[in-house]
Amino acid sequence: MNTLSNSLTESRTQNLDHARLSQGDVSDFFALLKPRVMFLVVFTALVGMVISHPDVNPVLALVALLMIAVGGGASGCLNMWWDADIDAVMTRTRKRPIPAGKIQPGEALAFGLTLAAGSVLILGLASNWLAAGLLAFTIFFYVVIYSMWLKRSTPQNIVIGGAAGALPPVVAQAAVTGHVAWDSIVLFAIIFMWTPPHFWALALVKSSDYERAGIPMMPNVAGADSTRFQILAYTVLLAPLGMVPVLMGFGGLAYAIISLVGGLGMLALAIQVYRLRQGEPAMRVAQQLFGFSILYLFLLFATLLAEHGFGFFHPVMG
Predict the structure, then answer these.
(1) pLDDT higher than threshold 90 for residue 181
(2) Domain that holds residue 143
(3) What residues contact residue 75 under an 8 Å CB cut-off, 6+ apart?
(4) Whole-prediction pTM value?
């Protein structure tokens, strides 16, 4: 552990020294926002809006989505600032702007805090303070609870920390209606339950990376076999949970088909991950589950968006 700690400290010192001699451009600052994650935040938030209030004022909707996106980007930026030391020793993240020496940590911190404060303030003024409070809580949870505490202290980091990534539909619903209802809570639950099998599938493939960085991901703490079992267990819960919008009446016929077929696909891959214990085939199927899980979540939310936003809703439940 001392060797790892010294290595991380040395990496951080070297990267800080490099950063003082360099300046990033607009693309580097944009990369700090984790644009792929930010897209998921905006997309799930949009669905939360549409199922709640499809006739919302477009200007309010646009401002709310923009502020939710900025708040999500601020979370990503502050996460990169805090995790610069471990990002520097992981092959998946060592080219990020701070460890690559393109952005100074102080610049990233100031940028992230400014975006966080601005997004919460503007959302509160443009919409309501319930939505602003939920956005502030989301940023706080991701940066402080997940990044600063859970990520480096417990293999349950992804499970608990997943709440932050699941909140955008709830924030969006509050922004356009002034309250939180069960439909957005169900969307929150789906994303929350989806997160562990999604990230643990990647963790099985990248376990050596996480071990090098000293992050207690589930495969490195409980072992690969236990992780595979937990992936299967969460997927067994996720598949029927994905059908709940149909039972509640806001998921239509198309959603019922997509959620059923997609849930069965997730289960089939999770079973394969559980059965294949070692070697290249095991890594390959874990990578397939990771990729399919992204498609699965996207299709669920895209179908809800099409049904409620574009008039394709055909109810299953009377």
Answers:
(1) yes
(2) 1-180
(3) 112, 116, 138, 139, 142, 143, 164
(4) 0.90
